[in-house]
Amino acid sequence: MQIASMHFKERAHDNMGNAQLQGNLQKIKGKFVAKRRASLFELDDVEATREAARAIRQRALDRLDVWLEIFERNAKARGATVLWAETPDEVNEHVLDIAKRHGVRKTIKSKSMVSEESALDRAIEAAGGQVVETDLGEYILQINDYEPPSHIIGPALHKSKEEVSDLFAKVHGTPRKTGIAELCLEARGVLRAHYLTAEMGISGGNFFVAETGSVVLVTNEGNATLTTTLPKVHIAISGIEKIVPTLEDVATLMRLLPRSATGQSISNYVDVLTGVKGEGEFNGAEHMYFILVDAGRSGVLAGELREALRCIRCGACMNHCPVYQNIGGHSYGWVYPGPIGSILTPAYIGIEKALDLPQASTLCNQCGVVCPVKIPLPDLLRKLREQQFEGHMRPWHERAGLRAWSWLASRPALYAMATRIGVRLLSWMGGRERLIHRLPLGSGWTDGRDMPAPAGKTFRELAALRKKSRGER
Ligand code: SF4
After folding, report:
1. Which helix (H) or strand (E) holds 158?
2. What pTM was computed for the model?
3. Which of the four, 20, 186, 238, 361, has the lowest number of CB atoms within 10 Å?
4. Which of the residues in the chain have pLDDT under 70?
């Protein structure tokens, strides 16, 4: 996928001013949040389950080399071929080789974010093959001239039903449908023919299980099941970090993944695929390949951001992020948006290409609180900010401002005086409306919205007044 993360500020600014997008984001805002909250109530002990999930993912990462070897051995024992890709380009090379070897003309795909990293669809087409995305969201984006995904579990969440209606009518050449069920039926009709005629299916992988050499796929549409079992060749592509030691570990993680992602206690389809189709078996691919992708992950594992690799791609951090909710996923400019994307993008493609992403957070810790595997997202963002500060990667005025703030904050009396002056000034700027329309040095804040004027007194002054009114000392 083309990297545009260096244009984060401009993209966020444009998206804030895009009325259609803002309307679409408003409609989904809070939907996932409420559903997640309700579904977690079903668990006896959410915190203990989160802790168990954290421990499982950490155990896998702590001995990743060993678990990967065990996975490779067990997958091979069941007839699969295991391939390794050090770079995104190597993923494409492997896929094209496999396609050539098996005489593949048409490929169907279920959702795979790793394949977005290498722009696999484009590579297949450039080599003369045909590729069809079967996840409804990915299909919508593909027929819209390969629009990039904006969310890791709902790639087309930024689009309204009306936009999809127009797109289907234009691309399929059918009368415009307006109901969601009708639109889904239309997509199903188009996709069914491809399932039956494709020679190769490509999937991602939610988990790769070391003890059995299996890939676990969690979906709601059933497209992954058809994609991986109808064609004669199946390729499962995943980052090396997706390994988990045992099926029992998967069972624990599955208590949290669908709940955190869509607020379901279980997804509609959970496929555990192990090896090639056996003697007398009806379902399954005749040739099964795993492509395990590094593409920057081993570097992250060796560094101070390693906890980010625990991610199970549930999307909860972006669903709860006030920044993501307002600027949408495309602003982030690469495959992974939201808080986890602001960590993974600089980690995978280089911090110099994603300078503003670690700043794209209020550090409110909503993301850290909801992450099912307890990734301390704000801490990792802060580590990236430190790297930028120490590496002189931020503009001089920002670094000077931080130095000035640090100097002031370590002198309590002076700090108290400066904040007293600051809040009074801001209060005065709010005028009768109590709204600040334009903030000097803070236009990024006030360009898209007004800032409520503060009370005109500092927190300490207000607390002291309150105590006094209660007669406390
Ligand atoms: S960082 Fe945590 S909350 Fe965000 S997608 Fe990954 S697992 Fe989910």
Report:
1. none
2. 0.91
3. 20
4. 473
